[in-house]
Design goal:
Elements: E1 3-6, E2 11-14, H1 16-22, H2 26-29, H3 34-37, H4 50-63, E3 67-73, E4 76-77, E5 86-87, E6 90-99, E7 105-114, E8 119-122, E9 127-130, H5 145-169, E10 173-178, E11 183-187, H6 189-194, H7 205-208, H8 217-227, E12 231-241, E13 248-261, E14 267-276, H9 278-301, E15 303-309, E16 315-317, H10 321-325, H11 332-338, H12 343-357, E17 360-369, E18 374-386, E19 392-401, H13 403-446, H14 451-473
Antiparallel strand pairs: 1-2, 1-7, 3-6, 4-5, 6-7, 8-9, 10-11, 10-14, 12-13, 13-14, 15-16, 15-19, 17-18, 18-19
Helix pairs in contact: 13-14
């Protein structure tokens, strides 16, 4: 059956087979727009898929290439007039463009094959299923063997193409190996990308990918084939050549080998499926290294990260908390019990003020290390975190062990105090010998001393200088 239309989808001609299959006459349809000749069923629009047919015809005209719709539900009028009755039918159609000398599509020929007798259509689920037994051909409206063969080929070709398209677009790489020699039968685009778009179909794994020998895959694949049991691996390293002549690169893959069984229940091949997770694996390794560096840095800096849930008052600490603080308080009350003496009130005031202002805060307190009963100094810094409605929900921050700094500062203060005391004592001691020296100098200046006075004055000066030298030496 053939229907000929121009580029505007006006019917130009129809052969006898088309007229018999649709129950139409040439006078009733020729010269009409195709969807006026075969209108939509107003009582059941889904039974006349006008949009699907229109898209197929326009696609053929636009591309200059045939377009096939392997299965189509389209009812045809049994009677003509204002209120026609419709006969529900199912079709397999091919729209073929006719080109002019310049290659432009000027007409389109539709070849519909009535496949109604091949299918059962469930109106509730809107799904069609193949009849278990095709009805015998009787009369002009039933299938000829050639038509049935053509229709089935169209359907199988479309389904196979659809499956191939799904196979190629499957997430991750997929390949099918057949026989005990593990011959590549199928592989999708992702698998070809993994192996550098090599010619692998029809070759054994070891012939197609010789570089993977000795990496343990021989045992894995053979084990799945002989045991009939699937194997799964995570982040499996594989050294592979990604381009001809290129050096081997290591990729990490999540991999599944699934045995394929034939009709007798025997293993006939292996279905290989997986994902190249190299980037995720490397990111995970980098993350672990970053975490390790952070932990080491926090230990070196004696820093603890903490989080306080204000609703239940639970405290959460980083893993190094016990090593630094000597214990891990479970809640805020236990932490307050560790704070030493008057520092507890100071800490509470800082927290209350931060909560009132929903702000950042910091403070330095003494706490008792329960593990060794040693008094230590910690400096806390943090901020109040708010929920989506702006209410305070938690506090998060860090605690640093500043015991060494605080003790060093205390030692420095003690040294400064001792220095001040020494300088005061020195000043006092220096004033005592300087007074007699000053008096002796005045006597020498204001009088004319005789020899005996000069000798006594000199003795005074010598004695006081000796005292000064003793002070300096001490």
């Amino acid at each position: 059956p053939y229907l000929v239309m121009d580029a505007d989808l006006t019917i130009l001609a129809a052969n006898d087979a088309y007229l018999r299959s649709t129950g139409a006459t040439a006078n009733a349809i020729v010269g009409k727009y195709v969807f006026h000749a075969f209108p939509e069923n107003p009582d059941d629009p889904d039974s006349t898929n006008v949009a699907v047919v229109r898209d197929s015809l326009k696609k053929a005209l636009a591309t200059g290439l045939p377009d096939t719709t392997p299965f189509l539900r389209y009812s045809v009028p049994k009677t003509r007039g204002d209120n026609p009755d419709f006969d529900e039918r199912y079709w397999s159609t091919t729209s073929t463009p006719i080109l002019d000398d310049e290659g432009k599509a000027v007409m389109v020929v539709q070849n519909p094959i009535d496949v109604t007798d091949l299918y059962n259509f469930n109106k509730t689920s809107h799904k069609a299923s193949v009849e278990s037994k095709v009805k015998a051909a009787e009369g002009a409206n039933n299938f000829s063997r050639a038509q049935m063969h053509e229709a089935m080929l169209r359907i199988l070709h479309d389904e196979r193409g659809h499956m191939r398209n799904l196979f190629n677009q499957a997430p991750g790489f997929v390949a099918v190996l057949t026989g005990p020699n593990h011959i590549f039968e199928l592989a999708n685009e992702s698998y070809f990308q993994l192996v550098g778009h090599r010619d692998i179909i029809g070759k054994s794994v070891w012939e197609a990918l010789p570089e993977i020998k000795g990496q343990g895959f021989e045992e894995l694949i053979s084990g799945v084939y002989t045991s009939g049991k699937a194997w799964t691996g995570r982040s499996v390293p594989i050294a592979i050549q990604r381009a001809p002549g290129a050096p081997l690169v290591t990729r990490h893959v999540d991999l599944l080998y699934q045995p394929v069984f034939d009709a007798d229940g025997k293993v006939s091949g292996i279905f290989a499926q997986g994902h190249d997770v190299t980037e995720a694996y490397e990111s995970q390794i980098a993350y672990r290294e970053t975490e390790e560096r952070l932990r080491e840095g926090m230990m070196a800096a004696k820093m603890v990260v903490w989080d306080w849930n204000l609703a239940n008052r639970h405290l959460f600490f980083s893993d190094n908390a016990e090593a630094i603080l000597g214990s891990v308080p479970a809640n805020a009350d236990e932490l307050m019990d560790l704070i030493f003496g008057d520092d507890r009130l100071k800490a509470q005031n800082i927290i209350d003020q931060a909560l009132a202002n929903q702000s950042e805060f910091e403070g330095t307190f003494r706490i008792n290390r329960l593990i060794d009963e040693r008094l230590m100094w910690i400096e806390i810094r943090g901020k109040v975190r708010k929920d989506s409605e702006g209410n305070s929900e938690s506090m998060r921050g860090v605690a640093l062990d500043v015991t060494y700094q605080m003790e060093a500062a205390e030692k420095l203060r003690n040294a400064d105090r001792q220095k001040d005391e020494f300088l005061a004592m020195l000043a006092h001691e220096l004033r005592n010998p300087l007074a007699p020296i000053s008096s002796a100098a005045q006597i020498l200046t204001l009088t004319q001393p005789d020899r005996a006075q000069l000798q006594r004055t000199g003795e005074i000066i010598k004695r006081q200088i000796k005292h000064l030298v003793g002070l300096v030496d001490d």
